[in-house]
Design goal:
Largest interface: A-B, 29 and 22 residues
Helix content of chain B: 55-70%
Strand content of chain A: 15-25%
Order of helices and strands of chain B: HHEHEEHEHEHEEEHEHEHHHHH
CATH class of chain A: Alpha Beta
CATH superfamily of chain A: P-loop containing nucleotide triphosphate hydrolases
Radius of gyration of chain B: 32 Å
Number of helices of chain A: 9
Oligomer: heterodimer
Helix content of chain A: 25-40%
Distance between the termini of chain B: 30 Å
Shape of chain B: elongated
Structural class of chain A: alpha/beta
Largest sheet of chain A: 6 strands, mixed
Number of domains of chain B: 2
Order of helices and strands of chain A: HHEEEHEEHEHHHEHEHEE
Radius of gyration of chain A: 18 Å
Strand content of chain B: 15-25%
CATH architecture of chain A: 3-Layer(aba) Sandwich
CATH topology of chain A: Rossmann fold
Strand order of the largest sheet of chain B: 2-3-8-5-7-6
Amino acid sequence: MSTRSIAGTGSIAGAGSLSESATPLIQLRGVSKTYGQGQAAFLALKGVDLSIDRGDFVAIMGPSGSGKSTAMNILGCLDRPSAGEYLFQGIPVQLLERNQRALLRRYTMGFVFQGFNLLPRTSALENVELPLLYRGVAARQRHVAARAALERVGLTGWESHSPAELSGGQLQRVAIARAIVSQPLMLLADEPTGNLDTQRSHEVMELLAELNQDQGISVIMVTHEAEMAAHARRIVHFRDGQVARDEIKEPAPCC
Amino acid sequence: MLLNALLLALGEIRRNLMRSFLTLLGIVIGVAAVITMVTLGNGATRMVAEQISSLGSNLILLRPGQRLGPGRGSLGAPSFKKEDVEAIRSQISGVQEVAPSVAIGATLVAGNNNWTSSINGTSNAYLSTGNWQLEAGRGFLEEEERAGKSVCILGDTVRQELFGNHSPLGDAVRVKGFSCQIIGLLAAKGQGAMGMNQDDLVLMPLKTVQRRLSGNQDISTILIGLRDGVEASSAMQRIRSLMRERRKLDEKEDDDFNMMDTRQIAATLSGTISTMTGLLGAVAAVSLLVGGIGIMNIMLVSVTERTREIGIRLAIGALEHEVLLQFLIEAVVLSAIGGLLGILLALAACVGLASLMGLPFLFDPAINLMAFGFSASIGVIFGFMPARRAAQLDPIEALRHE
């Protein structure tokens, strides 16, 4: 077990020193997840071992019920494993309380969801500013950072539009801008192209690949479309709660 | 952090303007009702106090019967006689004036007009004990009182009803078959402490009323005006023993008459009114409570409706207490805005109603502050449950919520 203290979470955000690169970004060791109890207990993950390096772009594939969403929730610190260890940058997430995991998410992770999950009746700019609000960033800096993030995803000029006034592709790009505005270590995308047509899907995938390439943000994405998974460097196939196949097409650009 | 939460809450209220307005309507009405009731009640109390002091502050009313009350007061107990009035005047120290009074309802006719009023058989002393001013004409002459002449002094309402705006001095009115000459007019006094019209009366010499209207020698009320600086309670004590003696009551018997001084009436009335004010305020407070439940209801709906939003916030890294604070502040801001609007509404209602009801408008900062504080704390109390529910949501479940 790691000796790193949890109190160090705050400093992880900016951490990118060489000493860190020795530890993989993510290590799952025999991670299991059980839902329900007794007779009705359902084993969603059965002893998953997985290691993901900093700067990688991983697609997680698998049929429904394969445990890929459960794995995603655990990787995103939204949930805790029932058994086994999850080390995020060496931090044993399985030992963290709800609020500690929230802080870990706040300072290191960005989320993109299938259903976009933007705040309704709220401008794109305000949506993108949300993570910074919880980080306690001052208003002026929030505006600057949110504008930059929107520019990065190609939405300059759409800042004041509310979600109802944007197309699906634009919504997902706002969501991506929200995920990257806080310059996270890791971006977690759960079926980010699930609600988009093929062309918009490829645009979103290219955007994710660029962010991975140019900004070194590690991207972990759940998808069931092989075509989309092809954008990733590495594809992890889940089946029946276990890793069935691990395809490394291109190594993570580590060091 | 607190400022952030405040901004979030304000933003949320702005985004749901209509719903927010409807939510705080309950608080607005509750606060406005409480403040209006209490303010008008205070005004009424003040007005009664002023009116009673206008009656003449050192006045004792002596009536037959054990208790003051309409109709039943004199039941069984003998009335007073002229000799009682004389006895009080001559034997009780500290008495300035004593006026007998017997009141009979009767219809007065003048030309084509008629008006039913209260005919008050009394003496000139009635004017000073009752704090009446003569607008025109004169009081009764001693000879008129002694002989029971048909002369009368009209109250302002009676004059207007029978003669309109012209002065009827020297004219006559007909009362139950006899004609009565108008020798004086009373200055208007306005509404009385119990809401009755004080100006709706006619004064005649006691003897005239006894002979021509009541047909007996009874006196129903004796008004006793005390000299300045005379203690009402000690004067009442002296009058009491005199009356007990004159009415031949032995020691075991209760008084068969009662006395009230105007100060006591004032205290009784103010007490009654402030009880009423308290009661109305309490009823209004219940509506404030209902308003609070309305806030809780809307906040619960809001939490359910915004489950997904809460999920997003939690996933992004909001802490439990931050979400709790956001919703709590939203509820408090809502109810505080409701409280402020309620105060404004109450102010408008008080000014309007006070002038409509002829009450003085007394602004009471304490009740305004109290109602505002109460409404804000209602936000805390009724906002807490929904806020905690929001904060304890599971982010995964919340994100999946449709």
